[in-house]
Amino acid sequence: MPETALKIPPVRFYLAEQTRTSHELVDKRAEAFDLTLAEGVTQFLRFMYRGISAIEAGLDESHAARIFPLWSERKRAAMIGAELAETALAWSEDEVTQQALDFRSEAEVWGALYVLEGSRLGARILVNRSELMSKSDFFQETARCRYWPEFLVQLEQADMRLDDRAGMAEGACRAFAAFPG
After folding, report:
1. Is residue 5 part of a domain?
2. Is residue 2, in this structure, part of any structural domain at all?
3. 5: left (phi over 0), alpha (psi -120 to 50) or beta
4. What CATH number is associated with residue 24?
5. Is the model's pTM score more than 0.70?
6. Could you report the per-residue pLDDT of 6-32, keeping only the tens digit for each?
7. Which InterPro entries does the annotation name (predicted)?
8. Has residue 53 been placed in a domain?
9. Where in the sequence is the domain holding 67, given as residue range(s)?
């Protein structure tokens, strides 16, 4: 009787399953903003900035550029911060300075990158919800870029090399937790 090879699902499906609760919580928090109002778009950008800046700072400290050469091109916190600086709403010191997350392994770095790259897909879905969003640099950047397929190839290669899906899931969950509640 021939043996059948056990097919392991792609790592993105594993990560989606392992982070489902965290992802749904962030989505629920994001849905609270009225993106048809200028203040709602600004509040959403603040929400994204707080999460993304903490994740990016942690990835910088973890030397993400060594394992993901396109890292410097993919960062968005500075762009969001610049866009927010043009608004009339004041920032608290806590919002401006985010504590870097601690990613303890290369697998955790890949998990955090999965969250950041995936957030572009979510933002791309939102860009057409209102005219205000189409004027936002953040939303325009997400509407233009098509990084996800290329990223998935690199994520799969990392998965095969590292064999640490649990570490990737831990990094992704830690990244999702950076978005304020």
Report:
1. no
2. no
3. beta
4. 1.20.910.10
5. yes
6. 678 999 999 999 999 999 999 999 999
7. Haem_Oase-like_multi-hlx
8. yes
9. 11-176
